[in-house]
Amino acid sequence: MFEPLTVEFSFEDDGNKLVGDFVRPPWPGPYPAVVFVEGSGPGGRDQGSWQTRLAAAGFASLAYDKPGSGASTGDWTRQTMADRAAETMAAVRAVRSREDVLSGAVALIGGSQGGWVAHLAASADDTIAAVVTVSGPGVSVRVQEEYRLRHQLAAEGFSGADIRQALVLLRDQIQRVQSGDDSARVHAEQAHWHHAPWYPALAGTTPESIAFIAGIADYDPATALAALHCPLLAIFGADDLLVPVEASVRAISSTLDEVGHADHTTVVFPGADHSIRVYTGEGPPQVREGRYTPAERAPGFDELIVTWLRRRLPATDPRYASP
Q1: CA proximity to 291, closest of 301, 277, 302
Q2: pLDDT beyond 90 at 322
Q3: What are residue 94's phi and psi, to 5 degrees?
Q4: 3-state secondary structure of 93
Q5: Average confidence (pLDDT) over 225-241
Q6: Containing domain of residue 194, as a range?
């Protein structure tokens, strides 16, 4: 049985200690490497079987807990997109400093919100060799969040009136906090809705998360995409309820085409959801938080990423190249 080698790995950024798992193949390195960029909410270290799959293909990888999650210090709800991008660049520098990593062959895999962050980090750091985004929006945070509420709540059976009220609360949160109002007061004044069945679907359900979504709501990836120089693979599921896929594909492709970006590919998996999983049961799928159950990874997804990365990451490290 294939057994990758796993060690706990930490690095520092903005006074925080970020802790995660560095996973590598069991044979001698150095290896090309991947840094995972987590999506919204807490977490980050648990990437399921992904790190093992990458190790089997010859890649090392780092997945770490976001600030305030798991063993990491800090508070992710206080971060802006720029903060998250700076943290990602710190993670890349830390991984590149390892003797068992190919210094010129470190890529990012950003999922969902992590796609925005990966674009931004790579646009500012020319050492990043490639970027893969999985359901990473090509539209602004505000546009994506409104799309998500409309489609996720409808799929979960909520009425048009419920959806309209959820959108009113979202817009009220963003407008008031951006105008200088205190997020705790905004949260308290929305207390009438706190027990509504659809309320947990909002991005802002606590003072901290309300402040966070208001702080990033106007982020648009167009500028970062236009400044991106490394290869980009953008993957989507055609039946994603959380991200406007057609608008995202159009925005990413047109922005990169306009600036003459040399190597970008968008792939849309038919019948796949936000997690690029396809429904496997009989009858209509059950939908929870925009994801199908029961479901399995779309056929060809893993192979696509591994093959794409292998073709774009250097096979040797300049430190070890023959003169």
Answers
A1: 277
A2: no
A3: -65, -40
A4: helix
A5: 97
A6: 141-216
